[in-house]
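[job 4471] stage=fold_predict status=RUNNING
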Amino acid sequence: MDLHLFIGEHMDEIMAEWVSFARTLDPAAEEMTLLQLRDHAEAILKSIAMDIDSHQSKREQYEKSRGNADDDGNQISAASIHGTQRHKSNFTLLHLSAEFRALRATVLRLWLPRVNTMCEETIRQMIRFNEAIDQALAESIVTYSARSDQTRELFLAILGHDLRAPLATVMMSGQVLARPALAPDEILKVGARIRRSALVMSKLVNDLIGYTRTELGGGMPMNLAAADVGEVCRAAMEDAQSTFPDTRFELVTEGPLAGLFDSVRLHQLFTNLLVNAAKYGAAGEPVRVRASADGQTVRVDVNNRGPTIARSQWRSIFEPLVQLPGASSNDHPAGQGNSLGLGLYVAREIATLHGGSVEVDSTDEAGTTFSVCLPRTQA
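[job 4471] inference complete, writing C-alpha coordinates
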Protein backbone atom coordinates (compact mmCIF):
# COMPACT_ATOMS: atom_id res chain seq x y z
CA MET A 1 0.00 0.00 0.00
CA ASP A 2 1.29 3.46 -0.88
CA LEU A 3 2.38 5.34 2.21
CA HIS A 4 0.29 8.45 1.55
CA LEU A 5 -2.84 6.29 1.20
CA PHE A 6 -1.96 4.33 4.34
CA ILE A 7 -1.67 7.55 6.37
CA GLY A 8 -5.12 8.67 5.26
CA GLU A 9 -6.80 5.32 5.93
CA HIS A 10 -5.15 4.71 9.32
CA MET A 11 -5.25 8.28 10.65
CA ASP A 12 -7.23 7.37 13.79
CA GLU A 13 -4.81 4.58 14.72
CA ILE A 14 -1.80 6.86 14.24
CA MET A 15 -3.47 9.68 16.20
CA ALA A 16 -4.22 7.32 19.09
CA GLU A 17 -0.53 6.50 19.39
CA TRP A 18 0.41 10.19 19.07
CA VAL A 19 -1.89 11.09 21.98
CA SER A 20 -0.69 8.11 24.03
CA PHE A 21 2.92 9.20 23.66
CA ALA A 22 2.23 12.92 24.21
CA ARG A 23 0.46 12.07 27.47
CA THR A 24 3.68 10.53 28.83
CA LEU A 25 5.50 13.86 28.55
CA ASP A 26 5.59 15.88 31.76
CA PRO A 27 3.62 18.98 30.65
CA ALA A 28 0.78 16.75 29.37
CA ALA A 29 0.67 14.32 32.25
CA GLU A 30 -2.36 15.77 33.98
CA GLU A 31 -4.56 18.54 32.72
CA MET A 32 -4.16 18.71 28.93
CA THR A 33 -7.34 17.83 27.05
CA LEU A 34 -7.52 15.39 24.15
CA LEU A 35 -7.83 18.34 21.75
CA GLN A 36 -4.68 19.94 23.19
CA LEU A 37 -2.76 16.66 22.96
CA ARG A 38 -3.74 16.09 19.33
CA ASP A 39 -3.16 19.75 18.54
CA HIS A 40 -2.40 20.01 14.79
CA ALA A 41 -1.03 16.47 14.44
CA GLU A 42 -3.71 15.34 11.99
CA ALA A 43 -3.15 18.38 9.78
CA ILE A 44 0.61 17.76 9.92
CA LEU A 45 0.13 14.15 8.77
CA LYS A 46 -2.21 15.16 5.96
CA SER A 47 0.37 17.69 4.77
CA ILE A 48 3.07 14.99 4.91
CA ALA A 49 0.88 12.60 2.89
CA MET A 50 0.31 15.27 0.23
CA ASP A 51 4.04 15.96 0.10
CA ILE A 52 4.83 12.25 -0.44
CA ASP A 53 2.30 12.06 -3.27
CA SER A 54 3.51 15.24 -5.00
CA HIS A 55 6.10 15.33 -7.78
CA GLN A 56 9.62 16.26 -6.76
CA SER A 57 12.57 16.84 -9.04
CA LYS A 58 16.10 15.83 -8.13
CA ARG A 59 16.96 19.49 -7.65
CA GLU A 60 14.00 19.98 -5.28
CA GLN A 61 14.96 16.85 -3.36
CA TYR A 62 18.52 18.14 -2.98
CA GLU A 63 17.35 21.53 -1.75
CA LYS A 64 14.92 19.96 0.74
CA SER A 65 17.68 17.72 2.11
CA ARG A 66 19.64 20.88 2.87
CA GLY A 67 16.66 22.52 4.58
CA ASN A 68 15.94 24.87 1.68
CA ALA A 69 12.47 23.67 0.77
CA ASP A 70 10.21 26.24 -0.89
CA ASP A 71 7.73 27.74 1.56
CA ASP A 72 4.43 29.45 0.92
CA GLY A 73 5.07 32.76 2.60
CA ASN A 74 1.35 33.57 2.74
CA GLN A 75 0.33 30.47 4.69
CA ILE A 76 1.37 29.26 8.14
CA SER A 77 1.81 25.50 8.21
CA ALA A 78 0.21 23.22 10.79
CA ALA A 79 3.69 22.28 12.00
CA SER A 80 4.52 25.95 12.61
CA ILE A 81 1.36 26.43 14.66
CA HIS A 82 2.15 23.23 16.55
CA GLY A 83 5.52 24.64 17.62
CA THR A 84 3.87 27.77 19.00
CA GLN A 85 1.18 25.81 20.83
CA ARG A 86 3.67 23.42 22.40
CA HIS A 87 5.65 26.37 23.75
CA LYS A 88 2.46 27.76 25.29
CA SER A 89 1.84 24.35 26.87
CA ASN A 90 5.33 24.42 28.49
CA PHE A 91 6.81 21.66 26.34
CA THR A 92 10.57 21.81 25.95
CA LEU A 93 12.40 21.49 22.63
CA LEU A 94 13.31 17.96 23.73
CA HIS A 95 9.61 17.15 24.18
CA LEU A 96 8.79 18.68 20.80
CA SER A 97 11.44 16.69 18.94
CA ALA A 98 10.43 13.52 20.81
CA GLU A 99 6.89 13.88 19.45
CA PHE A 100 8.10 13.91 15.86
CA ARG A 101 10.51 11.05 16.54
CA ALA A 102 7.65 8.98 17.94
CA LEU A 103 5.41 9.96 15.00
CA ARG A 104 8.06 8.83 12.52
CA ALA A 105 8.54 5.51 14.30
CA THR A 106 4.78 4.92 14.65
CA VAL A 107 3.97 5.44 10.97
CA LEU A 108 6.83 3.27 9.72
CA ARG A 109 6.11 0.53 12.27
CA LEU A 110 2.47 0.34 11.25
CA TRP A 111 3.05 0.70 7.50
CA LEU A 112 6.05 -1.55 6.76
CA PRO A 113 4.33 -4.88 7.67
CA ARG A 114 1.76 -4.04 4.98
CA VAL A 115 4.45 -3.62 2.29
CA ASN A 116 4.67 -6.74 0.15
CA THR A 117 8.09 -6.13 -1.41
CA MET A 118 10.89 -3.70 -0.63
CA CYS A 119 11.18 -2.13 -4.08
CA GLU A 120 12.58 1.15 -5.36
CA GLU A 121 9.16 2.85 -5.01
CA THR A 122 8.92 1.80 -1.36
CA ILE A 123 12.36 3.24 -0.65
CA ARG A 124 11.40 6.45 -2.48
CA GLN A 125 8.29 6.84 -0.32
CA MET A 126 10.28 6.24 2.86
CA ILE A 127 12.78 8.91 1.82
CA ARG A 128 10.01 11.37 1.01
CA PHE A 129 8.30 10.60 4.31
CA ASN A 130 11.48 11.21 6.32
CA GLU A 131 12.12 14.44 4.42
CA ALA A 132 8.59 15.63 5.21
CA ILE A 133 8.88 14.72 8.90
CA ASP A 134 12.20 16.58 9.15
CA GLN A 135 10.68 19.59 7.38
CA ALA A 136 7.71 19.63 9.77
CA LEU A 137 10.01 19.37 12.77
CA ALA A 138 12.14 22.25 11.46
CA GLU A 139 9.05 24.42 11.01
CA SER A 140 7.90 23.64 14.54
CA ILE A 141 11.32 24.45 15.99
CA VAL A 142 11.46 27.79 14.17
CA THR A 143 8.15 29.02 15.62
CA TYR A 144 8.91 27.49 19.04
CA SER A 145 12.23 29.34 19.15
CA ALA A 146 10.63 32.57 17.95
CA ARG A 147 8.07 32.42 20.75
CA SER A 148 10.80 31.60 23.24
CA ASP A 149 12.70 34.71 22.14
CA GLN A 150 9.55 36.82 22.46
CA THR A 151 8.95 35.47 25.95
CA ARG A 152 12.50 36.32 27.00
CA GLU A 153 12.17 39.86 25.62
CA LEU A 154 8.84 40.27 27.40
CA PHE A 155 10.42 39.03 30.60
CA LEU A 156 13.20 41.65 30.37
CA ALA A 157 10.68 44.37 29.54
CA ILE A 158 8.57 43.48 32.59
CA LEU A 159 11.65 43.35 34.80
CA GLY A 160 12.73 46.82 33.66
CA HIS A 161 9.22 48.20 34.12
CA ASP A 162 8.74 46.74 37.59
CA LEU A 163 12.13 47.86 38.86
CA ARG A 164 11.49 51.40 37.64
CA ALA A 165 8.64 52.09 40.11
CA PRO A 166 10.47 51.24 43.36
CA LEU A 167 13.64 52.91 42.06
CA ALA A 168 11.68 56.09 41.40
CA THR A 169 10.33 55.94 44.96
CA VAL A 170 13.85 55.61 46.37
CA MET A 171 15.07 58.54 44.23
CA MET A 172 12.20 60.81 45.30
CA SER A 173 12.69 59.79 48.92
CA GLY A 174 16.35 60.74 48.64
CA GLN A 175 15.36 64.17 47.36
CA VAL A 176 12.96 64.60 50.27
CA LEU A 177 15.64 63.60 52.80
CA ALA A 178 17.99 66.19 51.29
CA ARG A 179 15.65 69.02 52.32
CA PRO A 180 16.81 71.03 55.36
CA ALA A 181 14.93 70.93 58.67
CA LEU A 182 12.85 67.86 57.81
CA ALA A 183 10.44 66.92 60.62
CA PRO A 184 11.15 63.62 62.45
CA ASP A 185 7.76 62.15 61.56
CA GLU A 186 8.41 62.88 57.87
CA ILE A 187 11.78 61.12 58.10
CA LEU A 188 10.03 58.03 59.49
CA LYS A 189 7.52 58.04 56.63
CA VAL A 190 10.24 58.41 54.01
CA GLY A 191 12.26 55.64 55.64
CA ALA A 192 9.23 53.31 55.51
CA ARG A 193 8.74 54.05 51.80
CA ILE A 194 12.40 53.31 51.09
CA ARG A 195 12.18 50.04 53.03
CA ARG A 196 9.07 48.94 51.10
CA SER A 197 10.72 49.76 47.78
CA ALA A 198 13.88 47.91 48.77
CA LEU A 199 11.82 44.85 49.73
CA VAL A 200 10.07 44.90 46.36
CA MET A 201 13.36 45.12 44.47
CA SER A 202 14.92 42.45 46.68
CA LYS A 203 12.04 40.07 45.98
CA LEU A 204 12.32 40.67 42.24
CA VAL A 205 16.05 39.94 42.31
CA ASN A 206 15.65 36.83 44.51
CA ASP A 207 12.95 35.40 42.26
CA LEU A 208 15.05 36.14 39.19
CA ILE A 209 18.10 34.41 40.70
CA GLY A 210 16.02 31.39 41.69
CA TYR A 211 14.49 31.15 38.24
CA THR A 212 17.85 31.52 36.49
CA ARG A 213 19.54 28.87 38.61
CA THR A 214 16.73 26.42 37.95
CA GLU A 215 16.65 27.09 34.22
CA LEU A 216 20.42 26.67 33.93
CA GLY A 217 20.15 23.27 35.59
CA GLY A 218 22.28 24.13 38.59
CA GLY A 219 19.38 24.24 40.99
CA MET A 220 19.05 26.37 44.11
CA PRO A 221 21.62 25.77 46.84
CA MET A 222 20.19 24.11 49.94
CA ASN A 223 21.39 24.34 53.53
CA LEU A 224 19.31 22.10 55.80
CA ALA A 225 19.37 22.86 59.50
CA ALA A 226 17.06 22.73 62.48
CA ALA A 227 14.29 25.28 61.96
CA ASP A 228 10.74 26.00 63.10
CA VAL A 229 8.27 26.57 60.27
CA GLY A 230 6.06 28.70 62.53
CA GLU A 231 8.94 31.11 63.19
CA VAL A 232 9.76 31.25 59.48
CA CYS A 233 6.11 32.12 58.74
CA ARG A 234 6.18 34.94 61.30
CA ALA A 235 9.33 36.42 59.76
CA ALA A 236 7.84 36.16 56.26
CA MET A 237 4.66 37.89 57.49
CA GLU A 238 6.75 40.82 58.74
CA ASP A 239 8.24 41.31 55.27
CA ALA A 240 4.85 40.95 53.58
CA GLN A 241 3.38 43.42 56.08
CA SER A 242 6.09 45.94 55.20
CA THR A 243 5.21 45.60 51.52
CA PHE A 244 1.44 45.74 52.15
CA PRO A 245 0.99 47.81 55.33
CA ASP A 246 -2.79 48.07 54.84
CA THR A 247 -3.31 44.29 54.72
CA ARG A 248 -4.04 42.33 57.90
CA PHE A 249 -2.13 39.08 58.25
CA GLU A 250 -3.29 36.41 60.69
CA LEU A 251 -1.28 33.34 61.75
CA VAL A 252 -2.47 30.24 63.58
CA THR A 253 -0.02 27.46 64.52
CA GLU A 254 -0.89 23.95 65.65
CA GLY A 255 1.46 21.27 66.93
CA PRO A 256 5.26 21.01 66.77
CA LEU A 257 6.56 22.60 63.55
CA ALA A 258 10.29 21.98 63.98
CA GLY A 259 12.35 19.93 61.54
CA LEU A 260 15.26 20.02 59.13
CA PHE A 261 14.62 22.79 56.61
CA ASP A 262 16.42 25.51 54.70
CA SER A 263 14.92 28.45 56.60
CA VAL A 264 16.19 31.04 54.09
CA ARG A 265 14.51 29.25 51.18
CA LEU A 266 11.31 28.67 53.16
CA HIS A 267 11.25 32.36 54.07
CA GLN A 268 11.38 33.15 50.35
CA LEU A 269 8.65 30.59 49.63
CA PHE A 270 6.23 31.91 52.27
CA THR A 271 6.95 35.55 51.44
CA ASN A 272 6.05 34.87 47.82
CA LEU A 273 2.75 33.25 48.81
CA LEU A 274 1.88 35.99 51.31
CA VAL A 275 2.67 38.81 48.89
CA ASN A 276 0.57 37.14 46.20
CA ALA A 277 -2.28 36.67 48.65
CA ALA A 278 -2.15 40.32 49.72
CA LYS A 279 -1.84 41.61 46.17
CA TYR A 280 -4.79 39.68 44.80
CA GLY A 281 -6.95 39.63 47.93
CA ALA A 282 -10.13 41.64 48.33
CA ALA A 283 -9.75 45.02 50.04
CA GLY A 284 -10.41 44.84 53.76
CA GLU A 285 -10.11 41.04 53.89
CA PRO A 286 -7.27 39.47 55.92
CA VAL A 287 -4.71 36.98 54.67
CA ARG A 288 -5.00 33.92 56.92
CA VAL A 289 -2.09 31.54 57.50
CA ARG A 290 -2.45 28.20 59.26
CA ALA A 291 0.62 26.08 60.05
CA SER A 292 0.02 22.56 61.36
CA ALA A 293 1.84 19.25 61.75
CA ASP A 294 0.69 15.75 60.90
CA GLY A 295 3.22 13.07 61.79
CA GLN A 296 6.34 13.72 59.74
CA THR A 297 4.70 16.36 57.53
CA VAL A 298 4.31 20.09 58.15
CA ARG A 299 1.50 21.84 56.28
CA VAL A 300 1.07 25.59 55.75
CA ASP A 301 -2.14 27.01 54.24
CA VAL A 302 -2.24 30.60 52.96
CA ASN A 303 -5.79 31.79 52.32
CA ASN A 304 -7.20 35.01 50.91
CA ARG A 305 -10.55 36.27 49.66
CA GLY A 306 -10.45 37.65 46.15
CA PRO A 307 -11.01 36.70 42.51
CA THR A 308 -11.42 32.94 42.10
CA ILE A 309 -8.75 31.16 40.06
CA ALA A 310 -10.31 28.92 37.41
CA ARG A 311 -9.49 25.23 37.78
CA SER A 312 -8.00 25.23 34.27
CA GLN A 313 -5.31 27.64 35.57
CA TRP A 314 -4.37 25.77 38.73
CA ARG A 315 -1.40 24.11 37.03
CA SER A 316 -0.28 26.89 34.71
CA ILE A 317 0.04 29.59 37.40
CA PHE A 318 3.08 27.76 38.79
CA GLU A 319 4.91 28.17 35.47
CA PRO A 320 7.33 31.10 34.96
CA LEU A 321 5.96 34.35 33.48
CA VAL A 322 2.36 33.39 34.30
CA GLN A 323 0.56 35.93 36.47
CA LEU A 324 -2.43 35.37 38.69
CA PRO A 325 -5.69 36.68 37.22
CA GLY A 326 -7.60 39.33 39.10
CA ALA A 327 -6.57 42.49 40.82
CA SER A 328 -4.88 45.32 38.99
CA SER A 329 -1.79 46.99 40.35
CA ASN A 330 -3.87 50.10 41.09
CA ASP A 331 -5.57 48.17 43.91
CA HIS A 332 -2.25 47.60 45.64
CA PRO A 333 0.42 50.12 44.59
CA ALA A 334 2.98 48.35 46.77
CA GLY A 335 2.60 45.23 44.69
CA GLN A 336 3.52 46.78 41.38
CA GLY A 337 7.01 45.36 41.58
CA ASN A 338 5.78 41.78 41.98
CA SER A 339 4.63 41.25 38.40
CA LEU A 340 7.31 39.01 36.92
CA GLY A 341 5.16 35.93 37.28
CA LEU A 342 8.01 34.08 39.01
CA GLY A 343 6.81 34.04 42.63
CA LEU A 344 4.73 30.89 42.48
CA TYR A 345 7.25 29.16 40.22
CA VAL A 346 10.05 29.79 42.72
CA ALA A 347 7.79 28.74 45.61
CA ARG A 348 7.05 25.43 43.92
CA GLU A 349 10.74 24.80 43.19
CA ILE A 350 11.70 25.46 46.81
CA ALA A 351 9.00 23.08 48.07
CA THR A 352 10.16 20.43 45.59
CA LEU A 353 13.77 20.81 46.80
CA HIS A 354 12.50 19.98 50.29
CA GLY A 355 10.73 16.89 48.96
CA GLY A 356 7.37 18.63 49.34
CA SER A 357 4.75 20.29 47.18
CA VAL A 358 2.59 23.39 46.69
CA GLU A 359 -1.02 23.06 45.57
CA VAL A 360 -3.86 25.52 45.08
CA ASP A 361 -7.60 25.33 45.65
CA SER A 362 -9.91 28.21 44.76
CA THR A 363 -13.67 28.49 45.24
CA ASP A 364 -16.15 31.32 45.69
CA GLU A 365 -17.11 30.00 49.12
CA ALA A 366 -13.68 29.31 50.67
CA GLY A 367 -11.53 31.75 48.72
CA THR A 368 -8.10 30.86 47.35
CA THR A 369 -5.78 28.66 49.40
CA PHE A 370 -2.18 27.73 48.59
CA SER A 371 -1.15 24.67 50.59
CA VAL A 372 2.49 23.81 51.23
CA CYS A 373 3.34 20.29 52.44
CA LEU A 374 6.88 19.68 53.69
CA PRO A 375 8.46 16.54 55.16
CA ARG A 376 10.48 17.25 58.29
CA THR A 377 13.58 15.88 56.56
CA GLN A 378 14.59 16.17 52.93
CA ALA A 379 13.13 13.45 50.68
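[job 4471] summary: The first helix runs from residue 3 to 9.
[job 4471] exit 0
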